[in-house]
Structure formats: C-alpha cells, structure tokens
Amino acid sequence: MIEQDDFDINTRLHTIVRGEDEAAMVESVGLALVKLPDVLNRLKPDIMIVHGDRFDALALATSAALMNIRILHIEGGEVSGTIDDSIRHAITKLAHYHVCCTRSAEQHLISMCEDHDRILLAGCPSYDKLLSAKNKDYMSIIRMWLGDDVKPKDYIVALQHPVTTDIKHSIKMFELTLDALISFNKRTLVLFPNIDAGSKEMVRVMRKKGIEHHPNFRAVKHVPFDQFIQLVAHAGCMIGNSSCGVREVGAFGTPVINLGTRQIGRETGENVLHVRDADTQDKILQALHLQFGKQYPCSKIYGDGNAVPRILKFLKSIDLQEPLQKKFCFPPVKDNISQDIDHILETLSALAVDLGGTNLRVAIVSMKGEIVKKYTQFNPKTYEERINLILQMCVEAAAEAVKLNCRILGVGISTGGRVNPREGIVLHSTKLIQEWNSVDLRSPLSDTLHLPVWVDNDGNCAALAERKFGQGKGLENFVTLITGTGIGGGIVHQHELIHGSSFCAAELGHIVVSLDGPDCSCGSHGCIEAYASGMALQREAKKLHDEDQLLVEGMSVPKDEAVGALHLIQAAKLGNAKAQSILRTAGTALGLGVVNILHTMNPSLVILSGILASHYIHTVKDVIRQQALSSVQDVDVVVSDLVEPALLGAASMVLDYTTRRIY
C-alpha cells in the first residue's frame, strides 16, 4: 500500500520475528532497535512521525528519543484496555509533540504532564477518507470479497485479535464467536488476526472449524484500506475487538459488537454494543440478533474530516531551533514541612495492634519506638465483634495519624496462639481468646486500610521488640521469655526470628519441668505455664483465699474484686510464708525452663519480659547457678526495660520491612 501511494522509500527493514508469542514480540522490538540506529544516522530526519500503539512503534520512538530526534506522536492519550495502553503511554512520554483525536484524549495527555502548547486536537486522519467514501461504487467491492449473491446490509465483517495480557481467554472467546457466527448463518468476511502473541492459536481455531472452506465464510489476511472502508460501511454488522470497530466504523453508523476487554476504555458512538463477558456462545448470538441490520446515526467523535490539513499546519509551525529537551508540566505539589532527617524519621510510623486475653490495643509507633498515641478497648468475646472492632480502631488511628503528621507504612499485629506469619493467619488460639482459630487477619485489614499487614505470635513480637528497641539490639542470638497471663517467648538466632517448620517454635511456656506437675491449659501437665503464669498464680491465690490463708495484716480484697496473681505477690511481700513458697516454686519452674533453653540454644542473653519478670529474676538466676552447666552459667539473664513489648514488636515487623530488614 505504501508503494501504491508512490512514497519515496529510502530503507526497508525486516524486523518482525515469526512466532506469534510474547517472546517473538520482544525479539521483534529488539531486532528493530538493533537496525534502526544505522538508518536514522543516514537519514538524519528533523521530525519522526510515530503512529498509534503497536510494539514496533515503541521501538521507533525509543530509537528516535535516544538519538535526539524530535518525535510527533499521532493518536496518543487514548485508552483501550490491553498492553497497547502501556505502549501508547510510553510513546507519549518519549514524544515531543502530540496529535490526538478526541477531547478526552487531549485531557489525558494534559493529565500526563505533557505541555499543552505541544498538543494538537486534530481528529483521526483516517476520518478524512471515511467521511468522503460512502457514496463511491461499493457493489463491485462487496461482490469481489463476499460473492455475487450478497446484498448490502446482509453480511457481517468479523475482525478479532488476541489479547496479549490474557491469551487463553481470548482464544476461547474467538472460538465462541465463530460458533455464534456459524449458528447465525449469514455470509461473513473473517479477517485473520494480527501478529500479536496468541494469533497462531487463533488461526488454528479457524482451521479446526473449517472456516476457510465453509460456504458462509470468506477468510482473508488483508483487504486494502479503500475497499475495507466500503465493506464495513455497507455491512449489516461488524463483530470483534478491533479498534476499527469502535473508531472508524462509527463514521458510517454501522452496528458493531465489541467483544471482551481489548477496547474497553475507548470512546464509542451509540452504534457499539459491548459484550465484555463474552463467555458463552448464547451471549454473542443474542448480540448478533440485536445488532444485525440496524442503522445508527453517523458519529464524529474521532474526527470531522479535516485532520490532515490541521496536522500539516501544526508540523509547519514546529520551530526546529527550539531546545530539544522535553519539558513536563507537573501540577503544583505542596512543599514538605521540613527536610530535617530527624523529622522524616520521626514521622515514618507503624500501626501496631496487640490482641490480649483481656484488652485490644492499637498504637501509632514511630521509627524510634515512641508510642505516639495508644487506644485501648476490651477484647470482645466473638469473632465478628472482635474483627469489626479491630477494623474500626485501625481506621480511627490511621485518620488520627494524619493529624499527628505520622505517615503509616503498614500494620503489625501481635496475637496469642500459633500464627502463620507468611499468610497472616491465626492457626490456633489460646483459650484466652475465643473464636480465634483459622482466622485470616491480613486480608480484611489490608483491604480496608490499603496497607501491608504483618501478623505474628505475641511471644515472637516480644523478641522482635527487643531486637529493634531493647536489650537484644545488635545481638546475634538471644531468647525472650514473656511472663504474663500465659508464658510465651521468642528465639532470635543469627539475627533472625525462628518460626519453626509448623510455626510452633519458641512455645517456651510449654517446656515440661515436672512429670507430675499441675495441669496446663495446653492439655499436658508440668509445663512452665502451669507453674509460673499469671493464671497459675491466680489459681494458687484462690486456693489460699478459700482456705483463709492468703490475707495478712495490711491486706484486704474487696468483695467485688476477683482474687488474682497481684494479691499473691502482695501477700508474699508482706511476709505470707505460703505465698512466698508458691512464688519460689513458680520462679524455680521458670528457672528450670531457662536452664533447658541455655542447654539447647546457648544464647548470649535471656530477657525476661512481662509484668511478673521482676518477681522471678533472682530465683531464676539462683536456679541457673545450681542446675546449669558451667559453660552457660555466665549467660546474662535480664529484665526487659520495654514498657510495651507486644506493641513495639508488632510495629517492628512493619518498620524493619521499610528499612529492608529480612523478616
């Protein structure tokens, strides 16, 4: 066609690699990039005109941009719905001048920061031919391509291409289209698909169904543009997913059925019926019955027939002496309040969530470990109430963070039980938190807040808090034991947290220290938790109270207050021998557990965390001196100085990620 128009052809380039798959498209672009520099060096063009959104056009624009050649891009700013969008917009960013077809395309280019003075709204050049073509002799063209017995408005033109981002579905859709056309039983001109990835499979579908030999079909690879105009102008319907259907055919008011998503973002006239989910033959067949034979008003969305004179005038106005460097018209951006590094670090923050047996807490935590603001509510008993409260508190905290000049980077959640941190799922919970098994915490929070979410066991979070903010900072190996309502822990080995093959590592509260000890909540007996947890101390305190052996002089328990671990500790401090004995036994059980940890892990530090830690530390050290091997007796055991280890650990999962720490 270029030869027929008598162009002076300087160079011929063969760049299309056969294969019709994704790799062939990439190879074709690469081959063009290899060959084009020599051609452009020889031609030394003042301006390179690049049209459309095909991958070969991208190669041309890339070469010209890198060789400092001015580029004028035609038909930029449009939206379709496939990889063509990405290619089209990429060419826009490389081009110096733009010719667009519609008002919306012009606005898109301006939104993409292109210089308004370098954008021409001209209309589509093909409309210059389309709007003057319909009255020409067309019967001979119809007979040549479809047969002598075919009348105007009594045939179909089908043109369907592969969708490179979903090849499998587009092949299936093409198969359904052909089945529908066979059933519709009208003479049909089927054009072969383009050479994009997936086209070879579509041709196989045509041949499998015998389209090339079917009496109702004419299958062709190419129709000259002038003749193609006449064929679509007088068709009863056009079907497929070509841009021609939604752009050019509107000039004639020919009914169009647009299948799938390939042109989903295009502006269309009322002649176009969209079948976006073309997943059944029946849908396509119904669309054919609705559209075939109709006549719609002619649409001029894409042009008024005067694009070429406008483009010529625009080309002549380009000053070849003006600087080549492209300028972008960025919208104004509000200046930062401060560029001080301390200010930036302080405002980068995490949302931390701590799910305890009694309370639900959410906090905004800065990069330095400062708790900027904390919110506390009672932890509901049911799943629905709990998840709704978590979402509500996180949304409120995220909104408050904006007012506090804190930029939330993500959400970290600390919860009791066994957790799969990779998936963000609570596998099994402790008895303290009901209706909390097989719970996906990541999805609802991430969907609501549009932030990344990390989840881990509360013991592990205590270890993470020590690693980032506490006494484990900089240590290669250490163990944290958290003493609270239950007993938990976390192990850091070679700077990283150990989760174990089934996410059950560091269940330190369930190390057995006595074969005939008290029952534990895990179902076993003699565990550290059965002796040294807050629940265990509460159990012993109630026994003493029921036997009137808890209270000593200076103590009282109001009738409406439940007896708990703190009353036992108070009694021991005031000289209650039995309370002192219970605490000593609890501390000894914890100490034996620590000895087992020292012999197994040989850490450089053991950190006791939680409300009971300070009451156990001396007994634990005594047990280590008496029971541990001499090679580990020098390992230091300390009480954590972190006030909120669960919240800080939850935050550290987020903050470590933002500083590219492995977690």
From TrEMBL:
Keyword Lipid metabolism in record: no
List of residues binding an N-acyl-D-mannosamine: R418, T430, D458, E507, H510, E529
Q: Cite the UDP-N-acetylglucosamine 2-epimerase domain residue spans from the record.
A: 5-316
Instruction: Please state the span of the N-terminal signal peptide per the UniProt entry.
Output: none
Q: Which domain of life is it from?
A: Eukaryota
In the UniProt record, which is one GO cellular component term?
cytosol
Bilayer-spanning residue ranges:
none
Q: State which pathway it belongs to.
A: Amino-sugar metabolism; N-acetylneuraminate biosynthesis
Q: Which GO terms describe its molecular function?
A: ATP binding; hydrolase activity, hydrolyzing O-glycosyl compounds; metal ion binding; N-acylmannosamine kinase activity; UDP-N-acetylglucosamine 2-epimerase activity
List the EC numbers from the record: 2.7.1.60, 3.2.1.183
Q: Which GO terms describe its biological process?
A: UDP-N-acetylglucosamine metabolic process
* Compartment(s): Cytoplasm, Cytosol
* Catalysed reaction, written as an equation: UDP-N-acetyl-alpha-D-glucosamine + H2O = aldehydo-N-acetyl-D-mannosamine + UDP + H(+); an N-acyl-D-mannosamine + ATP = an N-acyl-D-mannosamine 6-phosphate + ADP + H(+)
**Protein keywords:** Allosteric enzyme, ATP-binding, Cytoplasm, Hydrolase, Kinase, Metal-binding, Multifunctional enzyme, Nucleotide-binding, Phosphoprotein, Transferase, Zinc
| Residues reported in the UniProt entry to bind Zn(2+) | H510, C520, C522, C527
Which residues carry out catalysis? D458
Q: Which family does it belong to?
A: In the C-terminal section; belongs to the ROK (NagC/XylR) family.
- Its quaternary structure? Homodimer. Homotetramer. Homohexamer. The hexameric form exhibits both enzyme activities, whereas the dimeric form only catalyzes the phosphorylation of N-acyl-D-mannosamine.
Protein name listed in UniProt: Bifunctional UDP-N-acetylglucosamine 2-epimerase/N-acetylmannosamine kinase
